[in-house]
Design brief:
two-stranded antiparallel sheet, 10 helices, 4 strands, mainly alpha
Length: 259
Amino acid sequence: MEEQKDYRISFFRPTTPFSRTNRNLVIILVLIWAICVFGFQILLRVMEKPTPEKALITFEKVWGNVKDGSAVESEKIEFANSVLMVLGKSTLAAKPEKRAVLDNALSWVVYDLMSGDSLRSTFITEIENFEKQKANENLDLKDVNYLNAKTSIINRVAPLLGIETYSLKAKLLPHELKSDGLVEFKAENKEKIHSVMSLYLTHNQSVLTDTVFLGFPFHYFYTAVFLLILFVVLCWVYSFKIDRLHTKSGHFNKPSESN
């Protein structure tokens, strides 16, 4: 009588040599996957070092004088440009309270850089008119009056800050300058601005993030490409090993030759 093969598999309480071998193989492959995924993340955290951007270094150099009112014109310009660097970051879009702090800082320092009451009065009027146009629900972004108002603000402020009128920084100006923040840098915003600047201009870096591999930062290549390849390889290894195990265990019997 032909021997009855036992195909039952219990992962946690294996009852046959085949199920025990299968269980051990799965555990080994899962451990390899877990070490490669979570071990790399732990390694990133262990090796990381907070590194400030150049804009933060510039900000910290001039902030003391700007805060106490002793800053010269060049320091105010550096301050404004460092604030603009953060306002250009897409991650700030989800934090309106932090953007409000920076908008107040930028508006105030630009207003402070302008000389003459008549020039400042004209500037306030321009900003207020532009804000009214933006608040219009039926605003057409191609409207001539809207574009002219936007261009006027850029042409007035960009040279003041030493930036090109066609640059990304210059294009941000009409949207970040606020009429209610021109005259005064509010005390609460003065207390918050350093933490906001540090948050967005400090990045954790290490040799794993700074090394370039095949044109990508190594940590990006590892997580976005290598781990996908590893997953496919582990699946192939399991299929290959389990196929050989089936054959060795006799679960795949060769068909008998016909007489």
